[in-house]
Amino acid sequence: MDEMLSERFEEHRPHLRAVAYRMLGSVSEADDAVQDAWLRIAQAETDDVENLRAWLTTVVARVSLNMLRSRRRRREEPFDAQLTNQANGGPDPEHEAVLADSVGLALLVVLDSLTPAERLAFVLHDMFDLPFEEIGTSVERSPAAARQLASRARRRVRGSEPPPGDPGRQRRLVDAYLAATRTGDFEALIRILDPAVVLRADSHAVPGGRPVVLRGAEAVAQSAVASAARARVTEVALVDGTAALVMALAGDVSVVLTFTVQGERISGIDVVADPEGLARLQIEGLDGRRT
Q: How many of the other CB atoms lie within 10 Å of CB of 58?
């Protein structure tokens, strides 16, 4: 084991622990994440690493992201219940209090409403000032996609966009969108779309080969009606832990639609068809099986 690397890791441990805590909201899980990261780092080649602190941050962030995704797949207790348990004698209460004071329990509750990828992008950029190039690597998405994740999370944290809250509401709206699209029901689509809804489609999702942005309920509804044929081979699934639409051809996912819900309407739709972008999404069937 490289003693120099061990010493430098210990030097950065408080920072890495803070990153993990902001991601996971639990001192014990943060310690587990840092320890897991160290086991990986100890076996890695670090001679060519120019910015060790940033590299270590990325490793811990990836470990924390995997832990968050695993937690959601297991459907563990809500985060507010975790906070209550920790306040009633959780592990290492002194350190818990120090970290909780630095982050703010209210903020942690809001962060828990974000998807794992949104949470990581927001934490790494807004709290630790990492560039989106590095954040994109951590969440396995492009820098532009990482920027969008952080922006969406920032709006929710600041209160301009409420957290998803009720997953049942998200599912109902996605179900309604799919049903209206399949039948070409323009009026039904207008009822569930926010008047200022924005749809963004990547260059692989449209025939012209260029990204498309549609604004307004009428434009988005017209586009949905025009895609009725594709909707017939589209199903509801979980994408990064929230209800979304997945189109699969011959067993392979070809298009994914993710939704942002505001109040009782859909305020944003992202259409992903880029193979690299699809590969980065965590897609599961509603029964928990990987699609």
A: 19
